[in-house]
Specification:
117 residues, 60s Ribosomal Protein L30, Chain: A, 4 helices, 4 strands, 37% helix
Length: 117
Amino acid sequence: MIARIRVDKALPSLANARLHWALKAKVIKAQRTEVMSRWLCLPLADRRRPVARVVFVRTSPRQLDDDNLASAFKAVRDEVASLLGVSDAPGGPVQWRYEQRRGKPGFEVEFWAEVMP
């Protein structure tokens, strides 16, 4: 693993949330800003290493199903792709993986140099 970012804020799935568009935009902006600020705190050498795989890990008392898990990380994935300077489209240079486990609400983003088979 190259680096890990940990954010101790809940990561809700916005897929089924009935939020006003302005409130939803505020939540998305806050998530992206959190990831960017944590990324900038990493050593410069870690930020310059090529990344082949990114693993998003959501921790929460309750688990989400697969599609809501990916949806919860939408803004985070967009920001990580922007910070890495890559496309987050399928078949791109980076593998995107999602995991979850029970625990204190928050999430982690792990950056790996190697791909998984």
